[in-house]
Design a protein that fits this description.
Layout (H helix, E strand, L loop, with lengths): L1 H54 L16 H22 L10 H41 L21 H4 L4 H12 L5 H18 L15 H21 L4 H15 L7 H32 L6 E6 L3 H12 L4 E7 L6 H10 L4 E5 L3 H4 L5 E5 L2 E2 L5 E4 L2 H10 L4 E4 L54 E4 L6 E4 L2 E3 L4 H8 L8
Length: about 500
């Protein structure tokens, strides 16, 4: 039995070897056949290509060189030469024309072509001369323009406009021109003061305004709301903004409020009644959004002042000055450090108010802030605008004070009315800012003495002066914002904007 099993296994092994040998032989034959087919294809394809190439006729065409492009003047001159040669040929051949004179149409064409050629030559020379003059003017302006490239997108500081120019006197109210001159000269500064002055001028304009009378040729009655908006309010605001000084956020919001008040009037309402409604609306706006707001802000902020506090403030904020004077009248005992900076020296005006109110105070410049910060307990600052992201847009130097107070773990409280809230988001003071008069930087101190080293700075193309009016304080440096709605964190400004300023299309 065992021998039979071994014999069976031996035969099985021999059959496996035979099948493997047969499989290997078949695979080798297939590979050889494929190689022969590939070699035949390689030999056939070049012959076919050569045959096709032989069938194609050899092209003896040589492309001509490209002609140079002619200018318009050169093309016209070439046409004139061809016409003149054709006219000369007609003269020599005789033809049907009598005499040696060319036909009148050809004479006119020749004359017009000559005149056109002369005009084209003059135009080309004038264009080239104008281009050269423009390049020279641009180079001169580039040398005269000593603004910093990083702030070249901002409108440059403008000199005082001519108040007697017919461009202004023929279209604007006299009070508008007078207020614009005060804006440009710096006589009126501060968001509240500028906004209040603008609204008072609008009250005078409404008092003197008369709707345009309808003429017999007009088919429809004139809407005094549209005329008052487009012909009175907008030109006045544009004059203040473009010719005098860029408007602040408070002015933009108040102007939008006035436009909405005019647009909400009934069309059929007589102007005398509409005038009284507008006057009452604007007066109520000034009382509620400026006067009452400052009193409410004072009541909220006085809760943060205690006897023996050392308060530090910067510049001359109207809300902060009302707060300090009212706190003194309430019997609180505190000390105030007034920090000031050039070139406006606005802290001197606040210092005079505090001295008049018999408040103990001290006066330092911004570079000496680190020497007194250790004894300060609270910092109260003003703001020109509140951005929707909680940033504070204020007088240049505000961010430095808030940064140093934050580093010394001193609470920073910002007093600001809600009508100064803007719907914009600003992270730095480069995108949006205002350029002040660079000449005031030449004054070494507030007495008006000029430094001779900067007297001819406009003639020196390598010297540039930069006078930024505002800076942006990050919301992380602010402990709280005191408004008439209460003391809120900087993260809640967007919510307050939605609640207090629901109007759209404001001149923020």
């Amino acid at each position: 039995m065992r021998n039979n099993l071994q014999l069976f296994l031996h035969h099985l092994h021999e059959e496996k070897t035979i099948t493997t040998v047969i499989a290997i032989a078949i695979s080798i034959s297939i590979i050889v056949a494929l190689g022969i087919i590939r070699q035949r294809r390689k030999t056939i394809m070049p012959e076919a290509a050569i045959g096709k190439e032989k069938k194609k006729p050899a092209s003896a065409f040589i492309p001509p060189p490209k002609k140079p492009k002619l200018t318009k003047a050169e093309r016209r001159a070439l046409q004139e030469q061809q016409r003149a040669a054709k006219a000369a040929g007609n003269k020599g051949g005789g033809g049907k024309q009598q005499g040696n004179a060319p036909p009148p149409k050809q004479q006119q064409l020749a004359q017009t072509s000559e005149s056109n050629a002369q005009k084209v030559k003059q135009e080309t020379t004038n264009v080239s001369s104008n281009n050269n003059s423009q390049q020279q003017q641009q180079s001169e302006l580039s040398h005269e323009d000593n603004t910093v490239d990083l702030f070249s997108h901002l409108p440059n500081f403008q000199e005082l406009p001519n108040p007697h120019s017919p461009e202004f006197t023929s279209t604007l109210h006299p009070d508008v021109i007078e207020l614009g001159m005060k804006y440009a000269s710096g006589e009126i500064r501060g968001g509240n003061a500028r906004c209040r002055s603008m609204l008072n001028v609008f009250l005078k304009i409404f008092q003197d305004y008369h709707p345009p009378a309808d003429t017999p040729t007009t088919t429809t009655t004139t809407d005094y709301r549209t005329h008052l908006d487009h012909m009175v309010l907008k030109p006045s605001f544009t004059f203040w903004t473009t010719r005098c000084r860029p408007h602040c956020v408070s002015m933009g919001n108040a102007f939008t409020f006035c436009k909405m008040a005019v647009a909400s009037l009934d069309r059929e309402l007589p102007w005398e009644e509409a005038r009284s409604i507008l006057q009452d609306t604007i007066e109520r706006y000034m009382q509620e959004r400026i006067d009452f707001a400052n009193h409410v802000i004072t009541d909220h902020a006085m809760q943060k002042i205690a006897n023996g506090d050392v308060i530090l403030t910067f510049g001359n904020s109207h809300a902060v000055s009302v707060l300090l004077v009212t706190a003194k009248e309430k019997g609180l005992d505190f000390y105030v450090w007034v920090v000031d900076a050039r070139p406006l020296w606005e802290g001197k005006d606040l210092l005079a108010k505090l001295q008049k109110a018999d408040i103990r105070c001290g006066y330092i410049q911004l570079n000496a802030l680190t020497f007194v910060m250790k004894q300060v307990t609270k910092v109260f600052l003003g703001a020109s605008a509140l951005m929707s992201n909680g940033a504070i847009y204020g007088r240049a130097g505000t961010a430095c004070v808030a940064l140093l107070a934050k580093d010394n773990h001193i609470p920073v409280l910002v007093c600001c009315e809600t009508y100064k809230i803007s719907n914009k988001v600003q992270l730095e003071s480069i995108t949006q800012n205002e350029l002040g008069n660079p000449d005031v930087l030449m004054e070494a101190s507030g007495d008006g003495n000029s430094n001779n080293s900067l007297a001819d700075w406009k003639e020196n193309k390598n010297l540039k002066l930069l006078n930024l009016m505002y800076d942006v304080t990050p919301p992380d440096f602010v402990s709280g914002i005191i408004t008439e709605a209460g003391i809120i964190p900087s993260t809640s400004v967007a919510v307050l904007l939605r609640e207090m300023n629901p109007q759209d299309g404001a001149y923020y």
